[in-house]
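Hey Z.,

So I finally got round to the zinc ion thing we talked about over coffee. Here's the setup:
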Amino acid sequence: MRSWVVGVFACVLVFSGGRATAADCPGHPDALGTSRILYVDPTEHRLLGTMQYRETLPLAHKEVVLTFDDGPIPPYSARVLETLASQCVKATYFLVGSMARAHPDMVRRIAADGHTIGTHSQNHPLSFHKMPLANAEREINDGIASVAAALGGEDKVAPFFRIPGLLRVDQVESYLATRHIMTWSADFPGDDWKKIGAQEIVNRSLARLEAKGKGVLLLHDIQPATVLALPILLGELKARGYKVVHVMPASAAHPKTQTVAAQWLMRPPKSGPATIAWPEPIPLPPVAAAELLPAPSLATVAFAQTLAGSILPLAEKPDRKKAVARTSRWPQRTPTPSVIDMAAREELPAPNPESFGYTNMIETKPAAPDRRAAATTPADAAASPTAPVSRLPGDITGSLRPSLGLWPRSTFGLSKSAYP
Ligand SMILES: [Zn+2]
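And the result:
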Protein backbone atom coordinates (compact mmCIF):
# COMPACT_ATOMS: atom_id res chain seq x y z
CA MET A 1 0.00 0.00 0.00
CA ARG A 2 2.75 2.41 0.96
CA SER A 3 4.75 1.66 -2.20
CA TRP A 4 1.61 2.32 -4.24
CA VAL A 5 1.20 5.72 -2.66
CA VAL A 6 4.86 6.55 -3.22
CA GLY A 7 4.55 5.42 -6.84
CA VAL A 8 1.56 7.66 -7.51
CA PHE A 9 3.35 10.58 -5.89
CA ALA A 10 6.41 9.95 -8.04
CA CYS A 11 4.27 9.86 -11.18
CA VAL A 12 2.68 13.18 -10.27
CA LEU A 13 6.12 14.70 -9.84
CA VAL A 14 7.36 13.32 -13.15
CA PHE A 15 4.40 14.45 -15.19
CA SER A 16 4.21 17.84 -13.55
CA GLY A 17 7.93 18.44 -14.08
CA GLY A 18 8.38 19.03 -10.36
CA ARG A 19 6.01 21.96 -10.51
CA ALA A 20 4.10 23.23 -7.52
CA THR A 21 1.35 25.07 -9.28
CA ALA A 22 -1.13 27.48 -7.75
CA ALA A 23 -3.56 24.56 -7.56
CA ASP A 24 -1.13 22.97 -5.10
CA CYS A 25 -1.50 25.92 -2.72
CA PRO A 26 -4.47 25.01 -0.52
CA GLY A 27 -6.69 27.93 0.29
CA HIS A 28 -4.90 30.22 -2.15
CA PRO A 29 -6.17 29.50 -5.67
CA ASP A 30 -4.55 32.66 -7.04
CA ALA A 31 -1.17 32.02 -5.45
CA LEU A 32 2.02 32.78 -7.31
CA GLY A 33 3.35 29.31 -6.52
CA THR A 34 6.76 27.84 -7.26
CA SER A 35 7.11 26.81 -10.87
CA ARG A 36 9.96 24.31 -10.59
CA ILE A 37 12.90 23.05 -8.58
CA LEU A 38 16.37 23.60 -9.99
CA TYR A 39 18.98 21.15 -8.68
CA VAL A 40 22.53 22.45 -8.99
CA ASP A 41 25.95 20.87 -8.49
CA PRO A 42 28.20 23.30 -6.55
CA THR A 43 31.33 21.62 -7.85
CA GLU A 44 30.47 22.45 -11.45
CA HIS A 45 29.51 26.09 -11.03
CA ARG A 46 31.34 27.70 -8.13
CA LEU A 47 30.41 31.37 -8.51
CA LEU A 48 26.91 32.70 -9.15
CA GLY A 49 25.36 36.09 -9.68
CA THR A 50 26.05 38.66 -12.35
CA MET A 51 26.44 41.47 -9.85
CA GLN A 52 29.95 40.08 -9.46
CA TYR A 53 30.45 36.97 -11.51
CA ARG A 54 30.26 35.77 -15.07
CA GLU A 55 27.70 33.07 -14.40
CA THR A 56 24.30 32.99 -12.80
CA LEU A 57 21.67 30.34 -12.32
CA PRO A 58 20.38 28.66 -15.49
CA LEU A 59 17.02 30.36 -15.46
CA ALA A 60 14.63 30.82 -18.33
CA HIS A 61 13.25 34.20 -19.29
CA LYS A 62 10.86 35.51 -16.62
CA GLU A 63 12.14 33.14 -13.97
CA VAL A 64 13.25 34.57 -10.62
CA VAL A 65 14.92 33.17 -7.51
CA LEU A 66 14.22 34.88 -4.18
CA THR A 67 16.98 35.00 -1.56
CA PHE A 68 16.91 36.34 2.01
CA ASP A 69 20.02 37.24 3.99
CA ASP A 70 21.05 38.00 7.56
CA GLY A 71 18.29 36.23 9.50
CA PRO A 72 16.62 34.90 11.29
CA ILE A 73 15.14 37.62 13.47
CA PRO A 74 11.64 37.22 14.84
CA PRO A 75 9.17 38.67 14.22
CA TYR A 76 10.29 39.86 10.77
CA SER A 77 11.53 36.49 9.61
CA ALA A 78 8.26 34.93 10.77
CA ARG A 79 6.21 37.47 8.79
CA VAL A 80 8.27 36.81 5.70
CA LEU A 81 7.70 33.08 6.12
CA GLU A 82 3.94 33.65 6.41
CA THR A 83 3.87 35.68 3.22
CA LEU A 84 5.90 33.10 1.32
CA ALA A 85 3.64 30.31 2.62
CA SER A 86 0.51 32.18 1.59
CA GLN A 87 1.82 32.22 -1.99
CA CYS A 88 3.44 28.76 -1.85
CA VAL A 89 6.71 30.35 -2.83
CA LYS A 90 10.02 28.69 -1.95
CA ALA A 91 13.14 30.78 -1.37
CA THR A 92 16.81 30.41 -0.50
CA TYR A 93 18.03 31.69 2.86
CA PHE A 94 21.54 32.73 3.82
CA LEU A 95 21.49 32.62 7.60
CA VAL A 96 23.99 34.15 10.01
CA GLY A 97 25.40 31.65 12.53
CA SER A 98 25.03 33.87 15.56
CA MET A 99 21.40 34.55 14.66
CA ALA A 100 20.77 30.83 14.23
CA ARG A 101 22.22 30.22 17.69
CA ALA A 102 19.89 32.86 19.09
CA HIS A 103 16.77 31.66 17.23
CA PRO A 104 17.14 27.96 16.43
CA ASP A 105 13.37 27.46 16.34
CA MET A 106 13.11 29.96 13.53
CA VAL A 107 15.82 28.12 11.63
CA ARG A 108 13.87 24.91 11.97
CA ARG A 109 10.68 26.63 10.85
CA ILE A 110 12.38 27.90 7.71
CA ALA A 111 13.48 24.33 6.97
CA ALA A 112 10.05 22.91 7.79
CA ASP A 113 8.46 25.30 5.31
CA GLY A 114 10.59 23.72 2.61
CA HIS A 115 13.02 26.55 1.90
CA THR A 116 16.67 26.03 1.10
CA ILE A 117 19.08 27.12 3.83
CA GLY A 118 22.61 28.25 3.07
CA THR A 119 24.89 30.31 5.31
CA HIS A 120 26.27 33.83 5.54
CA SER A 121 29.16 33.52 8.06
CA GLN A 122 29.03 33.34 11.84
CA ASN A 123 29.11 37.02 12.78
CA HIS A 124 28.57 38.87 9.49
CA PRO A 125 31.85 40.81 9.55
CA LEU A 126 32.12 43.33 6.71
CA SER A 127 35.80 42.59 6.25
CA PHE A 128 36.02 39.37 4.27
CA HIS A 129 37.98 41.16 1.58
CA LYS A 130 40.80 42.13 3.93
CA MET A 131 40.84 39.68 6.83
CA PRO A 132 43.39 36.83 7.00
CA LEU A 133 42.14 33.75 5.25
CA ALA A 134 42.23 31.79 8.51
CA ASN A 135 39.72 34.21 10.00
CA ALA A 136 37.49 33.94 6.95
CA GLU A 137 37.64 30.16 7.18
CA ARG A 138 36.62 30.32 10.82
CA GLU A 139 33.71 32.62 10.01
CA ILE A 140 32.54 30.29 7.26
CA ASN A 141 32.85 27.08 9.25
CA ASP A 142 31.40 28.45 12.49
CA GLY A 143 28.40 29.76 10.60
CA ILE A 144 27.75 26.39 9.01
CA ALA A 145 28.16 24.67 12.38
CA SER A 146 25.68 27.01 14.06
CA VAL A 147 22.98 26.47 11.45
CA ALA A 148 23.68 22.74 11.40
CA ALA A 149 23.27 22.63 15.17
CA ALA A 150 19.80 24.11 14.83
CA LEU A 151 18.82 21.72 12.04
CA GLY A 152 20.34 18.58 13.51
CA GLY A 153 23.10 17.91 11.02
CA GLU A 154 25.41 19.57 8.51
CA ASP A 155 23.85 17.53 5.72
CA LYS A 156 20.72 19.63 6.18
CA VAL A 157 22.64 22.80 5.34
CA ALA A 158 22.91 23.55 1.66
CA PRO A 159 26.50 24.07 0.41
CA PHE A 160 25.60 27.63 -0.57
CA PHE A 161 27.47 30.62 0.92
CA ARG A 162 27.06 34.35 0.42
CA ILE A 163 29.95 36.56 1.54
CA PRO A 164 28.78 39.33 3.93
CA GLY A 165 28.51 42.63 2.12
CA LEU A 166 29.41 40.77 -1.09
CA LEU A 167 33.00 41.70 -0.21
CA ARG A 168 34.49 39.01 -2.35
CA VAL A 169 38.14 38.11 -2.63
CA ASP A 170 39.80 35.35 -4.62
CA GLN A 171 41.25 33.41 -1.71
CA VAL A 172 37.89 33.14 0.05
CA GLU A 173 36.19 31.95 -3.12
CA SER A 174 38.96 29.41 -3.64
CA TYR A 175 38.58 28.13 -0.12
CA LEU A 176 34.83 27.73 -0.56
CA ALA A 177 35.46 25.83 -3.78
CA THR A 178 37.80 23.41 -2.00
CA ARG A 179 34.94 22.70 0.37
CA HIS A 180 32.55 22.17 -2.56
CA ILE A 181 30.54 25.18 -1.50
CA MET A 182 28.93 27.38 -4.13
CA THR A 183 29.53 31.12 -3.69
CA TRP A 184 26.39 33.11 -4.32
CA SER A 185 26.28 36.75 -5.25
CA ALA A 186 23.04 37.98 -6.86
CA ASP A 187 21.81 39.41 -10.13
CA PHE A 188 20.16 42.46 -8.58
CA PRO A 189 19.47 43.78 -5.08
CA GLY A 190 16.20 45.10 -3.70
CA ASP A 191 18.07 47.77 -1.70
CA ASP A 192 15.93 46.88 1.31
CA TRP A 193 18.76 47.69 3.75
CA LYS A 194 18.96 51.27 2.52
CA LYS A 195 16.17 52.70 4.66
CA ILE A 196 13.76 53.05 1.76
CA GLY A 197 10.04 52.41 1.86
CA ALA A 198 8.30 49.19 0.96
CA GLN A 199 6.98 50.50 -2.35
CA GLU A 200 10.44 51.68 -3.33
CA ILE A 201 11.83 48.22 -2.58
CA VAL A 202 9.18 46.78 -4.88
CA ASN A 203 9.88 49.36 -7.58
CA ARG A 204 13.63 48.82 -7.59
CA SER A 205 13.34 45.04 -7.46
CA LEU A 206 10.91 44.92 -10.36
CA ALA A 207 12.79 47.47 -12.45
CA ARG A 208 16.02 45.52 -12.12
CA LEU A 209 14.33 42.22 -12.73
CA GLU A 210 12.61 43.51 -15.83
CA ALA A 211 15.85 44.99 -17.10
CA LYS A 212 17.52 41.57 -17.05
CA GLY A 213 14.40 39.50 -17.64
CA LYS A 214 15.33 36.90 -15.03
CA GLY A 215 17.70 36.35 -12.14
CA VAL A 216 18.47 36.11 -8.45
CA LEU A 217 16.97 38.83 -6.24
CA LEU A 218 18.75 39.79 -3.01
CA LEU A 219 16.50 40.71 -0.05
CA HIS A 220 16.76 40.62 3.76
CA ASP A 221 14.13 39.00 5.97
CA ILE A 222 15.22 41.09 8.98
CA GLN A 223 13.97 44.43 7.64
CA PRO A 224 10.48 45.71 8.51
CA ALA A 225 10.22 47.37 5.10
CA THR A 226 10.88 44.01 3.45
CA VAL A 227 8.04 42.47 5.43
CA LEU A 228 5.69 45.10 4.01
CA ALA A 229 7.14 44.96 0.51
CA LEU A 230 7.01 41.20 0.01
CA PRO A 231 3.21 40.78 -0.46
CA ILE A 232 3.22 43.61 -3.01
CA LEU A 233 6.25 42.18 -4.77
CA LEU A 234 4.80 38.67 -5.05
CA GLY A 235 1.53 40.09 -6.36
CA GLU A 236 3.40 42.05 -9.02
CA LEU A 237 5.45 39.03 -10.02
CA LYS A 238 2.24 37.08 -10.51
CA ALA A 239 0.59 39.89 -12.46
CA ARG A 240 3.60 40.32 -14.72
CA GLY A 241 3.93 36.63 -15.52
CA TYR A 242 7.08 35.81 -13.60
CA LYS A 243 7.77 32.32 -12.26
CA VAL A 244 9.55 31.58 -9.01
CA VAL A 245 12.20 28.86 -9.13
CA HIS A 246 13.30 26.94 -6.05
CA VAL A 247 16.99 26.05 -5.98
CA MET A 248 18.31 23.01 -4.15
CA PRO A 249 21.67 21.26 -4.12
CA ALA A 250 21.82 18.13 -6.21
CA SER A 251 22.07 14.86 -4.31
CA ALA A 252 21.92 11.14 -4.90
CA ALA A 253 18.16 11.34 -4.56
CA HIS A 254 17.91 14.42 -6.78
CA PRO A 255 20.46 14.55 -9.57
CA LYS A 256 21.39 17.91 -10.96
CA THR A 257 19.04 19.49 -13.47
CA GLN A 258 20.51 18.94 -16.92
CA THR A 259 21.75 22.18 -18.45
CA VAL A 260 24.23 23.41 -21.03
CA ALA A 261 27.00 25.91 -20.31
CA ALA A 262 25.32 28.79 -22.14
CA GLN A 263 22.30 28.62 -19.82
CA TRP A 264 24.52 29.74 -16.94
CA LEU A 265 25.07 33.10 -18.58
CA MET A 266 22.67 35.98 -18.23
CA ARG A 267 23.07 36.72 -21.94
CA PRO A 268 24.13 33.63 -23.86
CA PRO A 269 26.48 34.54 -26.71
CA LYS A 270 24.82 34.77 -30.07
CA SER A 271 26.24 32.24 -32.44
CA GLY A 272 25.23 30.06 -35.34
CA PRO A 273 24.29 30.87 -38.92
CA ALA A 274 20.90 32.31 -38.00
CA THR A 275 22.48 35.16 -36.06
CA ILE A 276 25.22 36.20 -38.51
CA ALA A 277 24.26 39.58 -39.87
CA TRP A 278 25.99 39.23 -43.25
CA PRO A 279 25.92 36.11 -45.37
CA GLU A 280 29.14 34.36 -46.10
CA PRO A 281 30.45 35.21 -49.58
CA ILE A 282 29.69 32.54 -52.13
CA PRO A 283 32.87 31.52 -54.00
CA LEU A 284 32.48 31.90 -57.74
CA PRO A 285 33.96 29.42 -60.20
CA PRO A 286 37.03 30.65 -62.06
CA VAL A 287 36.26 32.34 -65.36
CA ALA A 288 37.69 30.56 -68.39
CA ALA A 289 39.84 32.60 -70.72
CA ALA A 290 37.42 31.99 -73.58
CA GLU A 291 34.58 33.62 -71.65
CA LEU A 292 36.41 36.91 -71.21
CA LEU A 293 34.99 39.82 -73.12
CA PRO A 294 37.16 41.46 -75.80
CA ALA A 295 39.01 44.58 -74.81
CA PRO A 296 37.08 47.75 -75.73
CA SER A 297 38.07 49.63 -78.87
CA LEU A 298 36.95 52.82 -80.55
CA ALA A 299 34.71 50.79 -82.83
CA THR A 300 32.68 49.58 -79.82
CA VAL A 301 31.85 52.99 -78.44
CA ALA A 302 29.67 55.75 -79.86
CA PHE A 303 32.30 58.48 -79.80
CA ALA A 304 34.12 58.90 -83.03
CA GLN A 305 36.32 61.83 -82.12
CA THR A 306 39.60 61.30 -80.38
CA LEU A 307 41.04 63.64 -77.86
CA ALA A 308 43.46 64.86 -80.49
CA GLY A 309 40.53 66.15 -82.52
CA SER A 310 40.89 63.89 -85.56
CA ILE A 311 37.74 62.46 -87.06
CA LEU A 312 37.20 58.75 -87.25
CA PRO A 313 34.54 57.31 -89.50
CA LEU A 314 31.81 55.41 -87.72
CA ALA A 315 31.16 51.93 -88.96
CA GLU A 316 27.50 52.73 -89.18
CA LYS A 317 26.21 56.18 -88.57
CA PRO A 318 23.09 55.90 -86.38
CA ASP A 319 19.94 57.63 -87.52
CA ARG A 320 19.19 59.28 -84.17
CA LYS A 321 16.08 61.05 -85.33
CA LYS A 322 14.55 57.85 -86.62
CA ALA A 323 15.53 55.88 -83.53
CA VAL A 324 13.96 58.40 -81.18
CA ALA A 325 10.70 58.45 -83.13
CA ARG A 326 10.46 54.69 -83.14
CA THR A 327 11.45 53.73 -79.63
CA SER A 328 10.56 56.65 -77.40
CA ARG A 329 7.29 58.15 -76.23
CA TRP A 330 9.01 61.36 -75.27
CA PRO A 331 8.26 64.44 -77.40
CA GLN A 332 10.31 65.05 -80.45
CA ARG A 333 13.25 67.30 -79.94
CA THR A 334 15.48 69.30 -82.15
CA PRO A 335 18.07 67.05 -83.74
CA THR A 336 21.50 67.54 -82.24
CA PRO A 337 24.22 68.41 -84.70
CA SER A 338 26.41 65.46 -85.38
CA VAL A 339 29.94 65.30 -84.10
CA ILE A 340 31.20 65.84 -87.61
CA ASP A 341 29.01 68.91 -88.05
CA MET A 342 30.28 70.39 -84.79
CA ALA A 343 33.86 69.77 -85.78
CA ALA A 344 33.29 71.41 -89.13
CA ARG A 345 32.09 74.66 -87.58
CA GLU A 346 34.44 77.43 -86.83
CA GLU A 347 35.57 78.26 -83.36
CA LEU A 348 32.76 79.27 -81.02
CA PRO A 349 32.38 82.95 -80.29
CA ALA A 350 33.90 84.22 -77.09
CA PRO A 351 31.29 84.41 -74.27
CA ASN A 352 29.91 87.76 -73.31
CA PRO A 353 27.57 88.81 -70.46
CA GLU A 354 24.42 88.44 -72.63
CA SER A 355 25.25 84.76 -73.03
CA PHE A 356 24.23 84.17 -69.42
CA GLY A 357 20.93 86.03 -69.48
CA TYR A 358 21.91 88.42 -66.71
CA THR A 359 21.61 91.82 -68.19
CA ASN A 360 21.11 93.68 -64.92
CA MET A 361 24.72 93.28 -64.05
CA ILE A 362 25.76 95.18 -67.11
CA GLU A 363 26.28 98.87 -66.73
CA THR A 364 25.05 100.47 -69.91
CA LYS A 365 26.00 103.89 -68.59
CA PRO A 366 29.20 104.89 -66.97
CA ALA A 367 29.02 104.07 -63.29
CA ALA A 368 28.97 106.77 -60.70
CA PRO A 369 32.14 107.05 -58.69
CA ASP A 370 32.24 104.17 -56.24
CA ARG A 371 33.45 105.13 -52.78
CA ARG A 372 34.44 101.59 -52.06
CA ALA A 373 36.43 101.31 -55.27
CA ALA A 374 37.95 104.66 -54.56
CA ALA A 375 39.05 103.35 -51.21
CA THR A 376 40.76 100.41 -52.87
CA THR A 377 44.45 100.77 -52.59
CA PRO A 378 46.67 100.44 -55.62
CA ALA A 379 48.00 97.24 -54.10
CA ASP A 380 44.48 95.76 -54.03
CA ALA A 381 43.88 96.67 -57.62
CA ALA A 382 47.11 95.11 -58.70
CA ALA A 383 46.33 91.91 -56.84
CA SER A 384 42.85 91.65 -58.34
CA PRO A 385 42.66 91.85 -62.14
CA THR A 386 38.84 91.54 -61.91
CA ALA A 387 38.56 94.62 -59.75
CA PRO A 388 36.22 96.44 -62.22
CA VAL A 389 33.61 93.68 -61.85
CA SER A 390 33.64 94.04 -58.08
CA ARG A 391 32.53 97.64 -58.49
CA LEU A 392 29.18 96.64 -59.96
CA PRO A 393 26.29 97.77 -57.76
CA GLY A 394 24.47 94.41 -57.72
CA ASP A 395 25.85 91.01 -56.87
CA ILE A 396 26.61 88.67 -59.68
CA THR A 397 23.79 86.27 -58.84
CA GLY A 398 21.19 88.94 -59.40
CA SER A 399 18.12 87.77 -57.47
CA LEU A 400 20.07 85.75 -54.90
CA ARG A 401 20.52 88.57 -52.50
CA PRO A 402 21.50 87.51 -49.01
CA SER A 403 18.20 88.46 -47.42
CA LEU A 404 18.82 86.13 -44.45
CA GLY A 405 22.38 87.15 -43.95
CA LEU A 406 23.59 83.65 -44.67
CA TRP A 407 26.23 84.72 -47.10
CA PRO A 408 29.63 85.85 -46.04
CA ARG A 409 29.91 89.59 -46.20
CA SER A 410 33.10 89.54 -48.18
CA THR A 411 31.29 87.86 -51.10
CA PHE A 412 29.07 90.80 -51.91
CA GLY A 413 29.70 94.43 -52.23
CA LEU A 414 26.76 95.33 -49.99
CA SER A 415 26.69 97.81 -47.23
CA LYS A 416 26.60 96.62 -43.61
CA SER A 417 23.01 97.71 -43.23
CA ALA A 418 21.87 94.81 -45.45
CA TYR A 419 22.56 92.39 -42.54
CA PRO A 420 20.56 92.05 -39.39
ZN1 LIG B 1 24.35 40.16 4.86
